[in-house]
Amino acid sequence: MEVNITINGSEHASDVEPRTLLVDHIRRTVGLTGTHVGCDTTSCGACTVLMDGTPVKACTVLAAQADGSEVTTVEGLKGADGLHPIQSAFTDDHGLQCGFCTPGMMLVGASLIAENPDPSDDEVRWAISGNLCRCTGYINIVKAIQTAAARVAESSNGS
Amino acid sequence: MVAPTTPAEIGGIGHSLQRKEDARLIEGQGNFLDDIDLPNTLHMAILRSPLAHARINGIDSEAAMALDGVLAVVTGDLMDQHGLAWMPTLSGDTQAVLATDKVRYQGQEVAAVIATDPYIATDALELIEVDYEELPPITTPQQSLEEGAALIRDEKEGQTDNLAYTWETGDQGATEEAFAKADRVVTLETHYPRSHPAPLETCGIVADINSVTGQATIYMTSQAPHAHRTLFAMVAGLPEQNIRIVSPDIGGGFGNKVPIYPGYVVATAASLLIGQPVKWVESRTENLISTGFARDYYMKGELAVTDEGRILGLRVNMLSDQGAFYSDAQPTQFRAGLFHVVTGSYDFPAAHIDCKGAFTNKAPGGVAYRCSFRITEASYLIERLVQNAAYEVGIDPAEMRLRNFIQPEQFPYETATGFVYDSGDYPTALRTAMDEVGYEDLRREQAEARAEGRLIGIGIAHFTEAVGAGPSRTYDIAGLKMIDSAELRVHPTGKAILKLGVKTQGQGHETTFAQIVAEVLGIPANDIKVEHGDTNHTPYGLGTYASRSTPVGGAATAVVARKLADKSKKIAAHLLEAADEDIELASGVFSVAGSPDRSVTIQDVALAAYTNLPEGMEYGLEDVTYYDPPNLTYPYGSYIVVVEVDPDTGVWQVQRMVALDDCGVRINPMIVEGQICGGLTEGFAMSAMQWITFDEDGNCIGANFMDYLVPTAWETPRFELLATEVPSPHHPIGAKGVGESATVGSPAAFVNAVIDAVAHLGVRNIDMPVLPDRVWAAIEEAS
């Protein structure tokens, strides 16, 4: 079947099997491999992408369900003026080790701070509780998301 | 902490340098196994046994073969024709690659489909008919060793029972004498449950064998690419010079990516036979049910103590559940890994350890999950025992430890089981952690809370690890000595490439190993590229596990950098027209002793190494070092956990977690702390929620992330980190390794805290994971 999905601002029209998972479509058809697969039961969040701005786990969304939507993957975070604040904060605060959960974590974090410009420790932890990390113990991920929120707030206050 | 000796722009030891590996990972430009997409790649899916124990009477793969897109269905019989139906394990046993006779655990590999598309490969699995004749499963090692138990390994010559191994160490006579002198004997029987490392990226392979040239390029999620190349050569009979193992970015390892799994062998054989690349990536369920379980030790420890709280001796009986094949990843000499480090941080003369392992109808593995070969189990047992001993003697658990610690002046200290601990200051570590947590006040608060019916518990663990295997005289895996290497090339412009035998899985080697070179030569760490993971482009080594990268590969890096510093000094002397012995090197500047204005930089020297040499010197500025450590290193730490237990539900919450680690010199403190936070979380996971268990039919309960509970950010406690820094006396830069300390040390601290909350009721043990219902039942039983 024909699906039209705008991924990171580019339209992708493809003929896919109806059963094709969104994550496989992104990785194999479109060729963007920054979105990872850590389980296939919506448990780990490594495959998280934003669909029309909302985080979804792309291992349990069909490509067909994303037809007509705008999808943002990790490759789409960086803007014309450089890294998204969430990306630089993850590096600055050592919010990643192996990097496998990182794309999903950053997308959830970006989505959170778009809605909540000053999230508390508990609010961040709740927001990322659908995303597993086996390396960091989360402490620096929480810190990075709060750092990014503070930087976004600061730059919007300044402008 | 020791202050850095290099300026920030050089970024040597002690700087919390930002990680070089982050740039690609935060932009989705990492290169993980499943991201590798070679032309004409075929996809493999594995059919696994639904039963724990059954005879295979036949496999019908006709319908699967007929499916459009399927190229091959590989069975055990086909593998057998090539002599590959069985493979050796890392512990000297053999393991089925694809079952030919019986299946011996749920999830065992029975057949594999090779297809043009992963969806088709998975579809085809459902079309394969296997005629199983069910056999009764054996699901505990106790059942397994009962008289008359069915023989699990009936194919194994000379095997007449289900015993996988026996091993003992220590001095039994001296231990009996110690127990005869004891005022009391404190006994603890506990199970360290089966767990799984479950890195977020599962295991996988892309095998690409050119049938014309014989070149085998094998991309693997491998913690030990060089060792795997050699084992592939030995097992598959491929010429080693034609094998190139590439371990790309790895999404966490924790021991899971040390062994060679059947899927790797089948994919490689399939690529060889078909002449196209074959990719296999485990599903999460496959990962959890078939590859790399850890722990599963039933331990009985007895401590001989005096009424003054002095430990006289330790006796341990241990029974391990090995699953269907004995495939522990561990040094050849030690059948139960380094479990005999179980004497812990304490000074007593006698110990005897008696271990045996049994085959069961469960997945094999026995990997050291974020642990130096079974040290986690050992550390847990002694720290639990010492707390219980304190209760029996009637002194505070902290005081019990302080009375028995190996004292700083006793190092090097030989333990009753033969480890020679190199360094440490245990009393300072424990007292520092106690001061931080406010130990005396907490004990008062605990007593007051108890009077109000609230249950507060304070748990201590003071662990000592033995990591960095290891000296070649003692340590090998499958005959391969556990040395490691570093090759350093400084180019004419003064930039360098460092090539390692070890392989990062998230630990940050690309940053920290560059910092070691920066420290020695003064080349900025950001001018040093670290390469690893590709056997064609890096020197040989045994890989990254057992916290051995810094102790062994890091030592090799320091030594090779020093070799180049020596050569550089001669070149500098030539450039400065001074005597070799008058040249001093600091932060990349070579100057003449007494005339600091006469100097050249490492960059000047690098150019001269290719353009302007002293008479008779060979061109170039590069070298390689193979490092054979003289001893293990012995990181340690003092952890204190405070919990509150709800007496009505058994639910417990961590109120405080203070973790003091001494890992010697910290190359990059930020990265060290990151490792500790991750390790503490895994320790919490095992004590609170994470386990792989089975029902009586041998069905794995814990086969996905809905049943196998790994902590999310919501459950994970907050940690307060402390450090002391006693350098390892024999390591070239005084570092000891840190990646696993927190996982090794922390489970006992968490469990001790829960026990401490209910100890006054008489509770002395709750098995891990310390689930609320178990706590509740223990309280009920005690009251």
What does this structure look like?
Chain A has helices spanning about 20-30, 85-90, 100-115, 120-125, 140-159; strands at about 1-5, 10-15, 50, 55, 70. Chain A has about 160 residues and is α+β, with helices and mostly antiparallel strands. Chain A folds into two domains: about 1-75, Beta-grasp domain (Ubiquitin-like (UB roll)), CATH 3.10.20.30; about 85-160, DNA polymerase, domain 1. A five-stranded mixed sheet of chain A has the order 2-1-5-3-4, sandwiched between helices. In chain A, helix 2 (about 85-90) packs across helix 5 (about 140-160) and helix 3 crosses helix 5 (about 140-160). The longest helix of chain A is centred in the last third of the chain and has 20 residues, at about 140-160. The radius of gyration of chain A is 15 Å and the shape is globular. Chain A starts with a strand and ends with a helix. By secondary structure, chain B is an alpha+beta fold. Among the domains of chain B are: about 20-30 and about 485-625, Aldehyde oxidase/xanthine dehydrogenase, molybdopterin binding domain (Aldehyde Oxidoreductase, domain 4, 2-Layer Sandwich); about 35-140 and about 200-290, Aldehyde oxidase/xanthine dehydrogenase, a/b hammerhead (Aldehyde Oxidoreductase, domain 3, Alpha-Beta Complex); about 425-465 and about 630-783, Aldehyde Oxidoreductase, domain 4, CATH 3.30.365.10. Chain B is built from 19 helices and 35 strands. Chain B is globular and about 80 Å long. The model of chain B has no long low-confidence stretch (mean pLDDT about 95). At the A-B interface, helix 2, helix 3, helix 4 and helix 5 of A face helix 1 and helix 17 of B.
